[in-house]
Automatic annotation (TrEMBL):
GO terms for molecular function: GTP binding; GTPase activity; magnesium ion binding. It comes from Hominifimenecus microfluidus. HAMAP family: GTPase_Obg. Its cofactor is Mg(2+). Keywords: Cytoplasm, GTP-binding, Hydrolase, Magnesium, Metal-binding, Nucleotide-binding. GO terms for cellular component: cytoplasm. GTP binds at residues 165-172, 190-194, 212-215, 282-285, 315-317. Residues 159-334 form the OBG-type G domain. GO terms for biological process: ribosome biogenesis. Monomer. This is GTPase Obg.
Length: 428
């Protein structure tokens, strides 16, 4: 099945941790610190592949994680950077934050490659922390965590002209007659379940791209059937050809059909509602009227041409009237803004990775117990017996807001703070 929507999980790589080591060589008994830096984590990159036209692959693989950076090594060795992960998508794919629905990026126009999540920065090795008073630091900086996000991918067809109308009015037949597209055609409702693209070639460099937008039904703007899935493809088009069954072979009234579909377009969005359109009154070779009755073509013209909507009687099967319709549409397109419709970025990243959680509790002896994965990790890297290491850890507690949280919990001078086997006396 054609897929034009998918939800996936993406995560950039974690930065490698800095290394703690000391130079150990013959005849150098007190070598200095030589722990290297960790490598940068891999980025998550989206890239347009013009050979793709669906999002089907994302139905099978929903998790995409870039490689972590390697830990730094001895002798000032820098850890290797994690490999970037390149995710290939069709042109016209819009990437949105799954939680807020805001646009992260639109893979259209000149935007063929976009870094969506950046890998974590590698941590510095202990060689960076040597000073005149602290010549043997036993701590290093951990790598920054990667960023992670659930995103929605939406493929929005890029075409100059969209064909709209009720199911079974002849859109696929028209597209196959006037373009190089080969849509499946059958006399069933909802035969077309995805947009078909075709190029209308009028010669001498004239022409345009036309998309057969799948059949709409009343209630589509409220999501009835596959309404939203169909309507989203219209957003990028510059003009609409509204195809209607003028002969009423399905037992419907052609004027009421046009009014019903336009009501759905209006309910969906203002941008779609305001698209210029023409009416192609199809199946004129099947029209039968009694003598004296108003023809459906005249009814359509009398109803819509006063509103500035031209009506062209055609037969998609025989080709009657198609030349006039296509040349009119081509000339109208020349008067419209040729700038492609690109969805602007709405989502601001900031730091997508929240601080790792921690909690503050009270022990039976009154000590304030602080626990959390990042605190435990920092204690493992830090030499609290050294003045430099202690100040390093104290700065970490202050920058993470942990000291402020302790104050909110009522800590006073002289109280004990306990963290994974270490007891500290609290002083301002």
């Amino acid at each position: 099945m054609f897929a034009d929507r998918a939800k996936i999980f993406i995560k950039s790589g974690k930065g490698g941790d800095g290394h703690v080591s000391f130079r150990r060589e013959l005849f150098v008994p007190d070598g200095g610190p030589d722990g290297g830096d960790g490598g940068k984590g891999g980025d998550i990159i989206f890239q347009v592949d013009k050979g793709l036209n669906t999002l089907t692959d994302f139905r099978h693989v929903r998790k995409y994680v870039a490689k972590d950076g390697e830990q730094g090594g001895k002798r000032r060795c820098h850890g290797a950077n994690g490999a970037d992960l390149v995710i290939k998508v069709p042109e016209g794919t819009v990437i949105k934050d799954a939680e807020t629905g805001k646009v992260i990026t639109d893979m259209s126009g000149d935007n063929m490659r976009e870094v969506v999540l950046k890998g974590g920065r590698g941590g510095q090795g202990n060689m960076h922390y040597a000073t005149a008073t602290m010549q043997a630091p036993k701590y290093a900086q951990p790598g920054k965590p990667g960023q992670e996000l659930y995103v929605n991918l939406e493929l929005k067809v890029i075409a100059d002209v969209g064909l709209v109308g009720f199911p079974n009015v002849g859109k696929s037949t028209l597209l196959s007659h006037v373009t190089n597209a080969n849509p499946k055609i059958a006399n069933y409702h909802f035969t077309t379940i995805h947009p078909n693209l075709g190029v209308v070639d009028l010669g001498e460099g004239q022409g345009f791209v036309m998309a057969d937008i799948p059949g709409l039904i009343e209630g589509a703007a409220e999501g009835v059937g596959l309404g939203h899935d169909f309507l989203r493809h219209i957003e990028r088009t510059k003009m609409l050809i509204h195809l209607v069954d003028a002969a009423g072979t399905e037992g419907r009234d052609p004027v009421e059909d046009v009014l019903a579909i336009n009501k759905e377009l209006e309910a969906y969005s203002d941008s779609v509602k305001n698209l210029p359109q023409v009416i192609a009154a199809n199946k004129i070779d099947a029209i039968y009227t009694e003598e004296g009755d108003e023809s459906p073509i005249e009814r359509l013209k009398n109803t819509f041409e006063p509103q500035g909507i031209r009506v062209f009687p055609i037969s998609a099967v025989s080709g009657q009237g198609l030349k006039e319709l296509l040349y009119y549409v081509n000339n109208q397109l020349k008067t419209l803004d040729q700038t492609p419709v690109i969805f602007e970025r709405e989502f601001e990243f900031g730091d997508l990775t929240p601080d790792l959680p921690y909690e503050i509790t009270r022990a039976d002896d009154g000590a304030f117990v602080v626990e959390g994965p990042l605190i435990e990790k920092m204690l493992g890297y830090t030499n609290l017996e050294s003045e430099k290491g202690f100040l390093f850890f104290q700065r970490f507690l202050r920058e993470r807001g942990i000291l402020d949280r302790l104050k909110e919990n009522g800590i006073e001078e002289g109280n004990t703070v306990r963290m994974y086997g270490f007891d500290f006396d609290y002083y301002e």
